[in-house]
Structures are given as C-alpha cells and as structure tokens.
C-alpha cells in the first residue's frame, strides 16, 4: 500500500485538475455568454475549488480504502499547495490577502476531507 499511495495521489490530483479545468472552461463560457458580474464569478470560482476538491477526496478515499478522511484532506491540501505555488510563481509573490489565502486553504482542505469521508 505504501508504494501505491504516492501514485494514487498523483493520479487523483491530475484528475482533480482536469475537473477544475473543465469547470473553469464552462465558467468562462458563462461569463462570455451571460456577462456575469464580478461577485458571481468569485463565488463560482470558489464553488469550482470546493467541487474539485470534494471529488478528488472522493476518488482518493475510494482508492485508498483506509483512513479515507485523511487521504481526502491530503488531496485538498495538495490541491491548494499546487494552486498556491503556481499563483506565487505567476505573480512573482503572494497575491491577495492572508484572509483570502486562508479561506481558500480551508475550502480546499475541508471539502477534500468531506469527499474522503463520503467515499
């Protein structure tokens, strides 16, 4: 099980980012078609984070079969870590307030853990 765990997590994160890409593509289409205001877009991006991490936690929990909540939590944390690193590299520093960063961290980790618990 220990040698399988890293590969399962890598595949789960790839699937999670594919889900995010598809949902964000649908969101950009909705933005273009319906001319949504900024507040709704921000809310929709948060929903994409939550749904992606929940599904990632669900997948990792089902594949790992033991300590599912932990693997779901780890999926959410790794999702956030990669998102944060890409944002950090792109902006050349920390973008956004500490409150926003901690909110996104909480959303990703808790929804991933919830997905693991449901699996």
What are the SSEs and their pairings?
Layout: H1 4-34, H2 38-64, H3 68-91, H4 98-118
Helix pairs in contact: 1-2, 1-3, 2-3, 2-4, 3-4
How is this structure best described in words?
With 119 residues, the protein is mostly helical. The chain has four helices and no strands. The longest helix is centred in the first third of the chain and has 31 residues, at 4-34. The radius of gyration is 15 Å and the shape is globular. The model has no long low-confidence stretch (mean pLDDT 90).
Model regions low in confidence, pLDDT < 50 over at least 5 residues: none
The coarse silhouette is globular
Beta-strand percentage range: under 5%
Strand segment tally = 0
Spatial separation of the terminal alpha carbons: 18 Å
Rg, nearest Å: 15 Å
Quote the average pLDDT. Answer: 90
Properties at a glance:
single chain; 119 residues; mainly alpha; 4 helices; 0% strand; globular
């Amino acid at each position: 099980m220990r040698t399988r765990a890293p590969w399962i997590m890598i595949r789960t994160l790839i699937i999670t980012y594919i889900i995010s890409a598809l949902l964000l593509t649908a969101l950009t289409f909705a933005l273009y078609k319906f001319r949504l205001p900024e507040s709704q877009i921000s809310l929709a991006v948060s929903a994409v984070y939550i749904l992606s991490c929940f599904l990632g936690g669900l997948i990792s929990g089902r594949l790992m079969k033991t300590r599912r909540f932990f693997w779901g939590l780890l999926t959410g944390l790794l999702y956030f870590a990669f998102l944060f690193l890409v944002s950090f590299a792109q902006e050349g520093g920390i973008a956004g307030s500490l409150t926003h960063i901690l909110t996104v961290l909480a959303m990703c980790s808790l929804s991933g853990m919830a997905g693991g618990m449901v699996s």
